[in-house]
Amino acid sequence: MLYDLIIRDALVIDGSDTPGYRADVALGDGRIQRIGDLDDVSAREEINAAGRVLAPGFIDVHTHDDTVVIRQPAMLPKITQGVTTVIVGNCGISASPVSLAGDPPDPMNLLGPAAAFVYPRFSDYRNAVDAARPAVNVAALIGHTALRSNHMDDLFRTARADEISAMRGQLRDSLADGALGLSTGLAYASAFSAETDEVKQLAEELTAFGAVYTTHLRSEFEPVLEAMDEAFAIGRHAKSPVVISHLKCAGAGNWGRSPQLLASLENAALTHPVGCDCYPYAASSSTLDLKQVTDAFPITITWSTPHPDQGGRELKDIAADWDLSLEDTARKLQPAGAVYYGMDENDVQRIMKHPLSMIGSDGLPEDPFPHPRLWGAFPRVLGHFSRDLGLFALHTAVHKMTGLTATRFGLHDRGFVREGYCADLVLFNADTVRDVADFKEPRRAAEGIDAVWVNGHLSYAEGKAQGERQGRFLPRSGSLVGGFDSVGPALAGKASAATAQN
Questions:
Q1: Is there a single domain that holds both residue 324 and residue 296?
Q2: How do residues 98-144 score in pLDDT, each as one tens digit?
Q3: 255 plus 326 within the same structural domain
Q4: How many domains does the chain have?
Q5: Which of 197, 246, 304, 444 is least enclosed, having the fewest CB within 10 Å?
Q6: What is the distance between the alpha carbons of residues 185 and 110, in angstroms, rounded to a whole number?
Q7: Confidence band (pLDDT; 50, 70, 90) for 486?
Q8: Distance (Å) of CA 372 to CA 6, 283, 401, 454
Q9: Does the predicted TM-score (pTM) go above 0.90?
Q10: Pairing of strands 83-88, 137-140
Q11: Which positions fall inside the Amidohydrolase domain (predicted)?
C-alpha cells in the first residue's frame, strides 16, 4: 500500500503517560495507518524526524475561541503551539445557543461584540464552524450564562421554574446536536445569583447523554473548598463527570492552600469522576472585576472600552496619573479587562503536577493586549516546566495535553498516536521547544514546534501556516456515564501519592 506520508525515526510519545519509543508512523486518508519499523513500505511523501518527538496534537481543554474560530479561522495563536483541537464554551459563556437583546453581558463580552453572536441554535454554530473550516478542530460546551441571557430579564436573581424549563430545552437540543456538556461561571455577577438547585436542574439534562459538567467555581478565593463541594454535588446529582476549570488558589490570602484543594479533589475522585484543568502561569486574566481590585499584587489593564489608550498599563500607574484610588480608577475604566498577578508559583506547580489536572490555555483572543498564555501555554509546559524545572516527565506533560483530555471529554479517536486514530500530530524538538510570548510582548509564536498535522494534512511548518485549513467540528462521540472511562477513580491512588510527596 502507498501511504500519504511516512514520518520516519520519530520518538513517539503517544499520549498515554508512558515513555516514548522510536518508530516510523504512516498516515493515510486523514488517519494513522501504521506504527513501527516501516522500512518495507513507501509513501507519496516522507519526513525524517531524526529522533524529534512526535506526539498527538495538543487539545486546549479551556479556551474562549468560540467566535474567533469562525471570524479568524487561521487560529495562529493555537496552531503555532501544536494545538490541533480547542474546546470552547467554558466558564458559562458560549457563542450558542444565544439570542441577544442588546450588548452581551459580562463576561460574554469576552467572546466578542454583539455582532459575533449570530447562532440562536447550537446547530447553527456547528454548521458555521464547518463552513469556516478553521485550522483547528472545535468541540463545544454550552454556557449556563448564555442560556440565562436567552430566557431571563434579570441575571441578578435565580431562575424561575418556567425559565429553567426553557433553558433545559435549549440545553437538551444542543446536546442532541453534539455539544460536550454544560459549563458554568458561577463566580461572575451574571450567574452568581443562580442557586445551586437551578444548576442541578439544568445538569439533569446531561444524564441521558452521558455529558460532562465543567465549572468556573463560585469562588476561587477563601470559600473555594465550599465552591468545590457545590460542584461535586451538582455532578453527583446529574451522574455527570465534573471538571473544575483553572483550579487555583486566588488572592494573597489563599496562597499555600493547594494541598487542601487537591485533597478535596482526590477525595471526590474516589467515588465520582472528577478532574481539573490549569494553566502554567501565576497570573489570571478576565474582565476587570471590582471585587478583585487590590494593592496586594499587580494588576495590568488589557483593554478598556472608554479608555483604550490605557491597555497594557498597570492599574496603579493609571490611578496615580488620574489621582484616583484603585477602585475609582477601575470604575472609570469599565468595561475593561485585566491580568491579575494573584497566585503563588508553588501552588501553580503543585496543581499542574497533580495526576488529576489537564493543561488548558484560558487565552482571551479578543484582548488587544492578551495574557501570554494565548500564544505560549503548551510550549511553556514542555520547555520551562518539564525540561528546565523537571516538574514532570515529558511523556506526562504530553499526556496532560492529549490523552487525558481526549478521554475526559469523550473524543474517542483523538489524543493518542494509535493506529486507526485521526492524524492530529505535532513534531517538536524537546531540547529547544519553549514559549516566547511574555507579559511585555504577548503575541509571539513559540519556538521548537517543527510541524503540525490536522486530520492528516500538514497545517503548520517552517514558522508559517501550510496548505488549506483542515479543522472540523467534533461532536461528542460517546457517553461518559460511569466515569472518564475510569480515569477518575483509577487516578485517585496516584493522586494521593503525589499529594503526599508535595
A1: yes
A2: 999 899 999 999 999 999 999 999 999 999 999 999 999 999 999 99
A3: no
A4: 2
A5: 197
A6: 13
A7: very low
A8: 34, 10, 18, 24
A9: yes
A10: parallel
A11: 45-459
